[in-house]
Amino acid sequence: MSVPERGGRRRRGRGGRGEQPVVPRAEFESYYGRPVIKPPSWAAPDIAGYFFLGGLAGAGSVLAAGAHLTGRTATATALKVSSLAAVSLSAAALIHDLGRPGRFANMLRVFKPTSPMSMGSWLLGAYGLAAGAAAASAVTGRLPRLGGAATGAAGLLGPVVATYTAVLAADTAVPAWHDAHRELPHLFAASATAAAAGMALVAGPVRETAPARCAAGLAALADVAVERAAERRLGLVAETWREGRAGTLLRAARYLTAGGALGAVVLGGRRVPAAASGLALLAGSACTRFGVFAAGVASAENPKYTVVPQRERARAGQR
């Protein structure tokens, strides 16, 4: 056993085995093995689907506005319709998780800037109206000026719609979400852009999808970079992003997003490869959202991901 010397140093014992700790390192166990925090009560199909569909809608409106301004009419119309469908399904998933439609209406009775849920409800309502007007005008050909204004409004609100769910998740005590509060909005933005580019490749004519192919490539690069940055900063909690159901989903997301982006850039000029690449990008974005959701649940259920990171932050603060 090593014996402390002056100055905090330890000297070797007679056995010459090097430094040994005087007191064994404590292992943490929670009360009866129960979680330290309450795991999310949200249903994965509803809320992870809500995350994915909201991202697809928001980023789709941004690409739709760009297509509208550059005269890519068919792609703009397809993205406007898909964004309206996505935000409608997103709202339906949220209401289903809430249990009663009246609960969503009740959230609109209060306007609270400090609450991500309150602001998200108002944002979803305003964006839905703009996306609906833009899609209706594009399909019917009526009121083109109003449709153009609605397209611009949906395009401006789109980035916030695509990323506010990351703020909503990071505002909880769930370690895998809260500790990644810096990277999560960027990850959701990249994932949403990949999904919207994929939708453009699937629904738009090949001659109009060059900007979507570029967006797919940039989104794939950003997705990989941000996810790696998040895992490096998460420390121990990063295990929940690599293992179990979350690890499987996030690995699938990386392969699908990278493959879809590569196919879009290299083979996106042909109809069938473009559509296949678009479907891969959509699937990769969905796997990202479901993987992040699964990582959050896993981190909340295991006590070590709650207490050990807190101890590490406390030690860092003391130093």
Summed up, the helix count is 12
As a percent range, the share of strand residues is: under 5%
Number of strands: 2
Strand order of the largest sheet: 1-2
Order of helices and strands: EEHHHHHHHHHHHH
The profile of the biggest β sheet is: 2 strands, antiparallel
Report how far apart the termini are: 27 Å
Can you characterise this structure?
- There is one protein chain.
- The chain has 319 residues and is mainly alpha-helical.
- It is 73% helix and 1% strand.
- It contains twelve helices and two strands, in the order E-E-H-H-H-H-H-H-H-H-H-H-H-H.
- Helix 5 packs antiparallel against helix 7, helix 7 (184-203) packs antiparallel against helix 11 and helix 10 (244-267) packs antiparallel against helix 11.
- It is globular, with a radius of gyration of 24 Å.
List the helices and strands and how they pair.
Elements: E1 3-4, E2 10-11, H1 44-69, H2 73-98, H3 101-107, H4 116-140, H5 144-170, H6 175-178, H7 184-203, H8 210-234, H9 239-242, H10 244-267, H11 271-301, H12 304-318
Antiparallel strand pairs: 1-2
Helix pairs in contact: 1-2, 1-5, 1-7, 1-11, 2-4, 2-7, 4-5, 5-7, 7-8, 7-11, 8-10, 10-11
Quickly describe the structure.
By secondary structure, this protein is mostly helical.
What attributes characterize this protein structure?
globular, about 325 residues, two-stranded antiparallel ribbon, mainly alpha
